[in-house]
Structure formats: structure tokens, C-alpha cells
Write a structure and sequence with these properties.
Elements lengths: L6 H18 L5 E7 L6 E6 L5 E5 L3 E5 L7 E4 L8 E6 L5 E5 L4 E6 L7 E6 L6 E6 L5 E8 L2 E7 L7 E2 L12 E2 L8 E5 L2 E5 L1 E2 L3 E3 L4 E3 L9 E10 L7 E9 L10 E4 L19 E4 L5 E5 L2 E5 L7 E4 L5 E4 L6 E4 L5 E6 L1
Antiparallel strand pairs: 1-29, 2-3, 3-4, 4-5, 6-7, 7-8, 8-9, 10-11, 11-12, 12-13, 14-17, 15-16, 16-18, 18-19, 20-21, 21-22, 23-24, 24-25, 25-26, 27-28, 28-29
């Protein structure tokens, strides 16, 4: 699984983080600004290309797109998939995106005309198929993770921007315990770790972090089908020896107000974990590093923001969202959730 990183993207993101942090330093606070709501769909897929281009996807075959930072939206119901759930989406620009229909038969579709038409690029009719999330290293190389089939997590790869997907041989897939699976909650239980590797987290009867060479037990709450890790985010602290910082969130989605063992961080690739002094205020389905210091996380009962690298989390909204993402090219941060809700983080 060797990838090629994008130095231009890394440099631009670093520059924009500096600009964003300068704004925050002027005494402003993050506020959730609602952009759209009221449609009959639960949005769990979110891809923020830049400050203007944002795509969302969800239930009832729904896909949405804006090219002006959320001022106006164009909504699509994908023909032939009106009853399907698109739990994740990856967009590359205003015209090109890939969506994932989760359960059997599982499908991946792609558009090159801004969502006007879609073509099936992958289909799997195997019993028990359930896709959970996609991750792309760049505009060509990506990976999709699915729940275990015959005791092993499903994995497929693409090297041409999602037009063709190839399944990883069964014997090379990670093994799962009985009752262990992934949550298709926000499309963020798998993330790029570096230029040649991805990591993913599981939940249910057992909750672990999987790398190419290891399976690491997580201290997060686990043991029942509603508990475990839902999302992971990775921050490349290039100035620090060892480099990568990771944060994992989850909890128990049946008790969405509980903060018990719902968030843990590591700065040594998972060898040791520590909990925040003030954790997120409930079950959380998604987490996103915004900078070295800033972390955003959301769930069914609200949104939390950390200004201190995850040591403490502040509840900034009681509005529930499934997913939050920062722009690939830019500082803009968007959220999506039930009832067609899409929102943006603004500073006031």
C-alpha cells in the first residue's frame, strides 16, 4: 500500500492553519452556523474540497453539492438507488466525486459531471457485505474498509481515482473477533497514517486500532454492539520526534450523553493512550484535527472543540451532527447530520 504524498497540499494546509490561528488569537470563539436543514435524509458522508466546494451524501439515495461555500445547494437523488444509504463520499473538485452504498449488495459509484449522472464502479453481492468508510491519500490512491466477512475485515483499493477497485486477497485481510466490526457513522474510522499506510479502528465486542503490522487494544468503552471507537484522526507533527499524533472517539451511541471512556489520544503510535482531563460531552461519531492545538468532534447530542491539543473539550453546540471535516485545501470546517442538516464553523 504505497502512496505518493502531495507536498503542495501539505504546505498550503500548514499556511492556512497559521492564518486561521491568527484569527482565533484575536479573541474570537467558534460558533456553529446552520446552512441548510429540513430535508428527509440523514447525512453521514461529507467531503470538503476547498472553502467553496463541499459535497454531502446520506440516506434515501441523497447527494448534495455546493460550489459557493454553502450559500446554495444542489440536491440529487441517485437514480436506481433511491432507498440506499450513501454513508461516505470523497470529492476531488466540483465535478468529480465517489460515493459508497453500504450494505449488500454494496456499491461504489462515481460522477464526473457534478452529480448529474453516476456510474457503478464497484459491486459486491456477497452475503454480509457492509462497507463502512473510504479514505484517499491523493486524487488517485484510495482505500475502502468494510465489516468482517468470514472473520476478516473487507478491504479494497483504487489507484485511479476510484474508477476501478481491487479487493485485497482474503488471506491478507485483518482478522476480527466475534462481534467486532466497524461503525459506518461518519466515514472516518479509517485514515491515512502516512504516505504508504492507513489505520482503522473497530468497535462492538472489542475495540482496536489496526495498522499494517499490528492490532492495538484501545482503552475506549467496548463490549456491546453499541460501544467502541467510531472515528480516528491523525495529525502529522513534523517538528516532533515520532511525528504522528492520533485521537480516537466513540462511546455508546445508545447512551449518547455518556462521556465514559469516549475519547483517547496517543503520541507514540498507540503504545500508550491518555484520556482528556475534560472529555467530549457524550458519544462522538467523528473527530478532526484542525491544527496541532485545535480538535473538533461531534455526535448525536452536540459539538465539542479543544483548543489545547485534546486535554480539555468545550461544548460549543447542543445541535447533533454525524460528521465534521476540514477542507483539504483551506481552513473552512463543515458538519452534517440528521434531517439534512449542514453547518459551518464560524468565528465570532
Amino acid at each position: 500500500m504505497f502512496m505518493v504524498s502531495n507536498p503542495k497540499k501539505i504546505f498550503l494546509s500548514m499556511l492556512l492553519f497559521v492564518v486561521a490561528n491568527c484569527i482565533k488569537g484575536q479573541g474570537h470563539s467558534p460558533v456553529i452556523e446552520m446552512l441548510t436543514s429540513g430535508t428527509n435524509t440523514s447525512l453521514r458522508g461529507l467531503s470538503v474540497v476547498n472553502d467553496n466546494v463541499v459535497w454531502v451524501s446520506g440516506s434515501n439515495g441523497t447527494v448534495g453539492r455546493t460550489t459557493n461555500a454553502g450559500k446554495n445547494w444542489k440536491w440529487f437523488t441517485v437514480k436506481g438507488f433511491e432507498k440506499r444509504e450513501f454513508r461516505d463520499i470523497e470529492a476531488f473538485d466540483g465535478a468529480t466525486a465517489v460515493i459508497m452504498a453500504v450494505d449488500e449488495p454494496a456499491y461504489i459509484l462515481k460522477t464526473n459531471d457534478g452529480g448529474e449522472s453516476w456510474r457503478v464502479v464497484y459491486e459486491n453481492t456477497s452475503k454480509g457485505m457492509f462497507l463502512d468508510a473510504m479514505e484517499f491519500w491523493n486524487e488517485q490512491s484510495g482505500i475502502v474498509i468494510g465489516d468482517p466477512v468470514d472473520g476478516r475485515f473487507f478491504i479494497a483499493r483504487t489507484f485511479d481515482g476510484g474508477s476501478v477497485w481491487n479487493e485485497i486477497p482474503f488471506e491478507n485481510r485483518p482478522t476480527a473477533d466475534t462481534g467486532e466490526a466497524c461503525f459506518a457513522a461518519s466515514g472516518t474510522n479509517i485514515r491515512a497514517l502516512d504516505r504508504d499506510e492507513a489505520v482503522f479502528v473497530s468497535g462492538g465486542s472489542r475495540s482496536r486500532l489496526f495498522t499494517r503490522t499490528s492490532k492495538i487494544e484501545l482503552p475506549i468503552i467496548q463490549g456491546t454492539e453499541s460501544t467502541g471507537a467510531n472515528s480516528i484522526s491523525v495529525f502529522d507533527d513534523y517538528k516532533r520526534k515520532g511525528g504522528k499524533r492520533m485521537i480516537v472517539v466513540g462511546g455508546d451511541f445508545k447512551i449518547d450523553s455518556s462521556s465514559k471512556k469516549n475519547c483517547f489520544l496517543t503520541s507514540d503510535h498507540g503504545k500508550s493512550w491518555y484520556a482528556p482531563k475534560v472529555p467530549p460531552h457524550g458519544y462522538r461519531s467523528c473527530v478532526e484535527f484542525l491544527s496541532k492545538q485545535d480538535i473538533l468532534t461531534c455526535g448525536l447530542n452536540g459539538v465539542d472543540y479543544s483548543f489545547d491539543s485534546g486535554r480539555t473539550f468545550n461544548l460549543i453546540s447542543r445541535e447533533g451532527f454525524h460528521v465534521c471535516r476540514i477542507a483539504k485545501y483551506g481552513p473552512s470546517i463543515f458538519l452534517a447530520g440528521n434531517n439534512g442538516r449542514v453547518a459551518k464553523v464560524v468565528w465570532k
